[in-house]
Amino acid sequence: MYQPKLRKKWNGIPIMCNSEIDAHAEEFLKDYNPSVLKNPQPVNMEEFAEFYLNLTLDYTYLTHCGLILGRMVFQDTERVPIYLPEEKCADYLYAKRGTMLIDNIVLEDWKEYRFRSTIGHECGHWVFHSDFYAYAHRRSHHEKISVPGITGCKKTDIEGGLELTGRRRLITDLDWLEHHAKYFSAAILMPKTPFINVVSDLMENTHFNEIDLAEVLSGIFQVSAISASIRLAQLGFTDYAGKKLKTMTKENLMGSGRFQALCE
Length: 264
Description:
globular, 6 strands, alpha+beta, two-stranded antiparallel ribbon, disordered C terminus
């Protein structure tokens, strides 16, 4: 399995820009299934998590209201907070290191893209933040970690919006942890190389002139249109994020510099 070499702060948090996360994501995919980098297609996220990263996926109610969509467990624990709907009370669950917990509401709302994004987000925490969370109990009195050794990712952490892509919102260490995981999810679901290739092909095809580009991409990569629009912005296609596709040749696009990834 690919092992990324990361620069880290004293507390184990990686120091990475977006282009580095893109590169790591493609190295993971190159080792897992090279075909997804050659032919634009959905990545099998369950298979990637379970059989490539050797994680255990489990499903339960993490809260009473669907606030937390996913948790990644970095050390064996008997105190993973969950909710029991029949008893209408909170409880604790035993989970081993390497367990990914997905809230049942992600399955019940019949939105496949949310399920895939949640898996991708928690995989991002696992591959980049194991050192930080595995030893979080030693620092929990200094940092705002509600459950040491376990993530607790909200819908806004996993999905967010275009307004969350700027550096101005990344202030604390925990902000950066969620940014790493969120960006990795986008980079693994919509790898940079095939994503740019398919955008270029669509722009050369006049048949797609009046079709929303984000909608087309969402169908190709099995993500939400919002996620595809955010990815367009991340990779420099800011003129097309959420807008109608216009005719533009690949040569003009290359010359405009829109192929350069943002490195924030």
